[in-house]
Design a protein that fits this description.
The complex is a heterodimer of chains A (493) and B (155). In chain A, 72% of the residues lie in helices and 0% in strands. Chain A is an all-alpha fold. Chain A has one domain. In chain A, helix 4 (57-74) runs antiparallel to helix 15. Chain B folds into 2 domains: 14-73; 83-149, no CATH class. The chains are: A mainly alpha (493), B mainly alpha (155). Chain B: Keywords: Membrane, Transmembrane, Transmembrane helix.
């Protein structure tokens, strides 16, 4: 555990007016983009990262965390109002959110989504704060052999869980590793795959690839599928008593549903590869099974909204447990945070607890602050975000594309990075078309250099003899686990 | 979905299997080209120790070859190919690429509004306010934020 003074210093760094401004801006931006179907917090994070490199690390990460947290709730707004989830993880919110809105209670439904989102998120943040430091202590005791085995295990789990084919997942993982080898060789410092471009000596720009694969590919896909029809109209608000808000009694009546959702979200979020959409659907199904009666599920039950929103929001904090605890991102948003850290010259992982404890606890402080801001900004701005739902695609997507171009130009220092971004978008569209999961590619690409270094160290320690693994039982267990995961996934499908 | 598949389907259909098989052959061919031509051309063969410059690229090429062959033999999983939409998306990327090339010659401030106007026209927007917001407002806001507030330059 880091010393208490570092912990307190970290929280003190977070709770400043300057940092609060970035958290509020991030949360507001997250809620806004979440409310606009088609953008979503991941794309917004990808676009925002290049603009944060002029900031210090803590405000930059606080801003991005704010976007992520705001976006988790924001996605529920169009799900409730127009039956179109703003983000994939809000899909299950449409089941009860929209029917409740159709009864003339859209404000009640969105407020329930807000309260349960904040509750689930706060729960997972507490788990993150309590669990990541002990995990990091264990992770720091691992040697290069164990770290290499742990990464192979994580790659196997991510490749197996994301997408619907283990082989496609493994191909994506290998493509990501291959892309990470485009740079000077870490041992001999000879150039690899530079094709005469000196800009590739430092590797393919992380931000350009992330923005291209996640944001630009999605923007052009959405533009290509746009049929010119306007968004459906939002349902009108009834003026009858109790239709505008959620009473304490109603909120408290959902406490077990929210707790169960938060537990499911935190559990799934802590595992690399499983996302908030799975958590939301699992929590909804679980709440439906344990329904005590009253309004049937699917007809505007508050518990249905509470179950999905508490679960999908709980995933966010838990996603950072593997990132900060062992240095492996649990989701694409956590992977994007890696590029934000890298821009600021920081390697995320357990070593941060030893070398930069103030920053780690500053981020935790910012996360708690972002939760509170999510509640306040959400309460104050629901009407504004409801209007944003109606923004036309003809404005959103061209604007987002131009932001991507400007942002990547700034972060990569030239139009070469922008060209890489467009190539990455084309690759992403092609891979997605044939069902190869781009997220796996991105995560292994982000971890590629570290993997090559740890593999090199492990081979030197083992002297290239696999039998020497018997002296490293943890590594052996992890490698067997990776193999077993692969076999299990292959048999399951 | 090869007009063949959709996000809501659970089991792969014949269209998915054909496309996946094709993808498997493509990955296999890429791995072969990588192994035979690109790695020897682009990666130094020298080095000592267990990890040489070519070691990880060769491991990746071998893995991709095996993965591609497996995918070609046992095509598994869903696909998401929509030919018309993907062609249109490719066209949009070409427009963006031309805009990036043009930015290098004439600058962001002149090219970004033209790019925005082209995209707005493709998306069939006719409301003057939204057209103005996209064509003038967005590039202007970016220029203000980057050049005036951040003190950085744009292309």
């Amino acid at each position: 555990m880091p010393p208490l003074d570092s912990v307190l210093a970290g929280f003190a760094d977070a709770f400043t007016l300057f940092n609060l401004l970035f958290v509020v801006a991030g949360v507001a931006m997250g809620q806004l983009v979440g409310a606009i179907p088609g953008i979503g917090p991941v794309m917004a994070m990808a676009i925002a990262i290049p603009f944060t490199f002029t900031l210090d690390t803590l405000p930059a990460v606080s801003f991005l965390v704010g976007i992520m947290k705001g976006g988790l709730f924001g996605g529920a707004i169009p799900a409730v109002l127009i039956n179109t989830p703003g983000t994939p993880d809000a899909a299950a919110t449409t089941f009860d959110g929209h029917p409740l809105a159709a009864k003339g209670k859209p404000l009640k439904a969105t407020k329930m989504a807000l309260y349960s989102s904040v509750t689930g998120d706060a729960f997972s943040d507490m788990v993150l704060i309590l669990a990541s430091a002990p995990i990091a202590v264990i992770a720091l005791k691992l040697g290069p052999v164990e770290v290499c085995a742990l990464m192979i295990f994580a790659f196997a789990v991510i490749a197996g869980l994301v997408g619907d084919s283990l082989i496609k997942g493994l191909i994506a993982a290998l493509l990501g590793l291959l892309l990470a080898t485009v740079q000077l060789d870490p041992e001999q410092a000879t150039p690899r795959f530079d094709f005469g471009y000196f800009q590739l000596y430092d590797g393919v720009n992380l931000v350009a690839v992330a923005v291209g694969m996640l944001a630009v590919a999605e923007i052009v896909r959405r533009m290509a599928e746009h049929d010119g029809r306007p968004q459906p109209a939002a349902v009108p608000q009834s003026e009858e008593p109790g239709a505008r808000g959620v009473s304490w009694r109603e909120y408290w009546g959902c406490r077990w549903t929210m707790l169960r959702g938060a537990l499911i979200g935190t559990g799934l979020g802590a595992l690399p590869g499983l996302g908030s959409t799975a958590a939301a659907f699992m929590s909804y199904a679980s709440a439906k099974r344990g329904d005590p009666g009253g309004v049937p599920f699917g007809e505007g039950n508050l518990r249905g909204i509470a179950a999905t929103e508490s679960a999908n929001s709980a995933v966010m904090g838990a996603n950072l447990i593997p990132l900060l605890g062992i240095g492996i991102p649990g989701s694409v948003s956590a992977a994007l945070l890696i590029s934000a850290f890298v821009i600021h010259g920081i390697q995320p992982g357990p070593l941060m607890f030893r070398t930069q404890p103030e920053l780690v606890y500053g981020i935790f402080g910012a996360m708690l602050m972002a939760n509170l801001c999510n509640l306040i900004v959400g309460q104050l701005s629901l009407r504004a975000w409801s209007a944003a739902v109606k923004a036309p695609a003809s404005f959103i997507f061209p604007a987002a594309l131009i932001f991507c171009i400007a942002g990547v130009y700034l972060s990569s220092g030239g139009l070469f990075g922008v060209s890489i971004m467009l190539i990455a978008a084309a690759v992403s569209l092609t891979l997605t078309a044939v069902g190869i999961p781009v997220i796996v590619l991105l995560i292994t690409f982000f971890l590629g250099r570290r993997f090559e270094t740890s593999l090199s160290q492990a081979l030197t320690i083992l002297d290239g003899d696999p039998r020497a693994l018997t002296a490293h039982p943890v590594a052996l267990i992890l490698l067997v686990g990776a193999l077993a995961t692969g076999v299990w996934m292959a048999r399951r499908r | 979905m090869s007009e063949a598949s959709s996000g809501s389907r659970q089991a792969p259909g014949p269209g998915d299997r054909a496309l996946t098989r094709g993808a498997g052959f493509a990955v296999l061919a890429f791995a072969a080209v990588l192994w035979v031509w690109i790695i020897p051309w682009q990666v130094d063969a020298s080095g000592t120790g267990w990890m040489r410059p070519r070691t990880l690229p060769l491991i990746c090429a071998a893995g991709l070859g095996i993965g591609g062959a497996l995918l070609a033999v046992v095509p598994a999983g869903l696909t998401d190919l929509r030919p018309r939409a993907h062609l249109k998306a490719a066209g949009l990327l070409v427009i963006a690429a031309v805009a990036v090339w043009a930015m290098a010659r004439w600058g962001f401030l002149w090219v970004a509004p033209v790019l925005a106007a082209a995209l707005v026209a493709i998306l069939r927007e006719r409301r003057p306010l939204w057209i103005a917001a996209t064509v003038i407002g967005v590039p202007g806001a970016i220029w203000l934020a980057v050049v005036e507030l951040l003190g950085r330059s744009l292309p």
